[in-house]
């Protein structure tokens, strides 16, 4: 089995992350002062009483090899089963929602009743937006609906700790929309997060910084520092500093403020800071235990940025491996214990886990859909169900799947 190129310090839990400085100002990691700053007024999204997630242990390292394709063309390890939940252009079973075309980035959200919601972007022009599926506590699909209408080429995005979904437009004048997975509150544009060809976004819940990727061959790696907190105690996304990374030869990162994040001057956001380092096709991004993981499809790399040390290293370099087992690196999600799951755009149509040891372990392969890509991987709150999409399926219409099995166990 090929292994990833890895800096061990970036893997797994951070026992002593730099936390918010309750005494005022910024701490050494650049954290926002939770006790001060700007009050943005009433929260725009409801404060939800969601049960705390049960602690889990990862079993991903113990998963065996992929078996033969099942009736849906899914190659799964022993002990795992798969089902197709939806097909683009067809009604989701038991609902009046027609599943959207080109399903892309997604995430899950625990609900007040013990169930969960899977949200999923639509990467099509003009009518893109976001759809959602709701499940009850038993895992039965009970509803499907729209949470964002008529946005443009919604690719990936990211969940927030305050239970909203940030949906990103992948176009030159693209915006980030904050959306309500429950579909009860209208989506809100967040231009302070920049106007550019967005791919994905994640939130550091210790320092309340947001990190963003850009799907350009000479794209940037961005950080948003909010100006203050709202009445609910979460970052105010209406104002703050958008910054772009400069990476030194030793991996040290310097952040430079972007002068015109709304791109009103006509100079693209990525070209406003001459010192900015170029990232070749930024794709998935995810925060876990003090580390931001970023994939760049143009050079088949997965990066790990240490938010406290403010340094970045290559976790996986497909171009440095003969016949690499993981290519077309795209959407990223991280397990409870630091397994970095990477979905392939093309490649072998697999979701592959980069384990904390550096070993690469395929978890699922979609066969017979070589012209498609895998998108939107996300675990349910129990960690035993993995959701994902085949964006174009077999005929151009996407499929959404659920894989069930022992990915995790209760801690």
Descriptive terms for the model:
mainly beta; 6-stranded antiparallel β-sheet; 5-stranded antiparallel β-sheet; about 400 residues; globular; 31 strands; disordered N terminus; single chain
Topology of this structure?
Blueprint: E1 38-39, E2 56-58, E3 66-69, E4 74-77, E5 81-87, E6 103-110, E7 116-122, E8 130-135, E9 141-148, E10 154-159, E11 165-169, E12 176-179, E13 188-189, E14 198-204, E15 209-214, E16 221-226, E17 228-229, E18 240-247, E19 253-257, E20 282-288, E21 291-296, E22 301-306, E23 311-317, E24 329-334, E25 340-344, E26 350-354, E27 360-366, E28 374-379, E29 385-390, E30 399-404, E31 408-410
Parallel strand pairs: 1-17
Antiparallel strand pairs: 2-31, 3-4, 4-27, 5-30, 6-7, 7-8, 8-9, 10-11, 11-12, 12-13, 14-15, 15-16, 16-18, 18-19, 20-21, 21-22, 22-23, 24-25, 25-26, 26-27, 28-29, 29-30
Q: Can you characterise this structure?
A:
With 411 residues, the protein is mostly beta strands. It has a domain of 287 residues: Neuraminidase. 0% of the residues lie in helices and 41% in strands. It has no helices and 31 strands. It has a 6-stranded antiparallel β-sheet with strand order 3-4-27-26-25-24, with no helix packed on it. A 5-stranded antiparallel β-sheet has the order 14-15-16-18-19, with no helix packed on it. The protein has a 4-stranded antiparallel β-sheet with strand order 5-30-29-28, with no helix packed on it. Strand 18 and strand 19 form a beta hairpin.
């Amino acid at each position: 089995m090929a292994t990833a190129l890895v800096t061990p310090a970036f893997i797994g839990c951070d026992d002593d992350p730099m936390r918010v400085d309750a005494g005022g100002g910024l701490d050494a990691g650049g954290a926002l002062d939770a006790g001060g700053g700007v009050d943005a007024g009433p929260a725009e999204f409801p404060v939800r009483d969601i049960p705390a997630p049960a602690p889990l242990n990862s079993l991903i390292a113990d998963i065996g090899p992929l078996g033969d394709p099942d009736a849906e063309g899914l190659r799964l390890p022993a002990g795992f089963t798969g089902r197709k939940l939806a097909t683009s252009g067809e009604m989701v079973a038991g609902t009046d929602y027609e599943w959207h075309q080109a399903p892309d980035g997604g995430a899950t959200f625990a609900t007040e009743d013990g169930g969960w919601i899977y949200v999923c972007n639509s990467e099509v022009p003009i009518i893109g937006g976001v759809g959602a599926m709701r499940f009850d506590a038993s895992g039965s699909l009970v509803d499907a609906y729209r949470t964002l209408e008529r946005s443009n080429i919604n690719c990936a995005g990211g969940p927030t700790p305050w239970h909203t979904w940030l949906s990103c437009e992948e176009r030159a004048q693209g915006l980030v929309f904050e959306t309500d997975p429950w579909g009860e509150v209208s989506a809100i544009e967040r231009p302070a997060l920049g106007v550019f060809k967005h791919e994905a976004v994640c939130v550091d819940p210790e320092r309340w910084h947001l990190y963003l990727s850009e799907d350009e061959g000479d794209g940037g790696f961005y950080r948003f520092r909010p100006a203050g907190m709202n009445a609910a105690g979460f970052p105010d996304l209406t104002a703050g500093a958008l910054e772009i990374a400069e990476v030194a030869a030793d991996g040290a990162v310097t952040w430079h403020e972007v002068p015109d994040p709304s791109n009103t001057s006509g100079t693209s956001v990525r070209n406003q800071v001459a010192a900015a380092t170029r990232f070749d096709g930024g794709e998935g991004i995810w925060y876990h235990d003090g580390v931001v993981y970023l994939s760049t499809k143009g050079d088949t790399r997965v990066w790990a940025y240490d938010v406290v040390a403010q340094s970045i290293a290559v976790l996986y370099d497909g171009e440095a491996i003969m016949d690499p087992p993981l290519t077309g690196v795209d959407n990223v999600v991280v397990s409870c214990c630091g397994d970095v799951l990477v979905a392939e755009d093309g490649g072998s149509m697999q979701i592959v886990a980069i384990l904390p040891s550096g070993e690469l372990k395929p978890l699922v392969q979609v066969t017979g859909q070589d012209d498609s890509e895998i998108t939107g991987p996300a675990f349910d709150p129990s960690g035993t169900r993995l959701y994902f999409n085949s964006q174009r399926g077999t005929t151009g219409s996407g499929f959404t799947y659920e894989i069930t099995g022992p990915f995790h166990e209760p801690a």
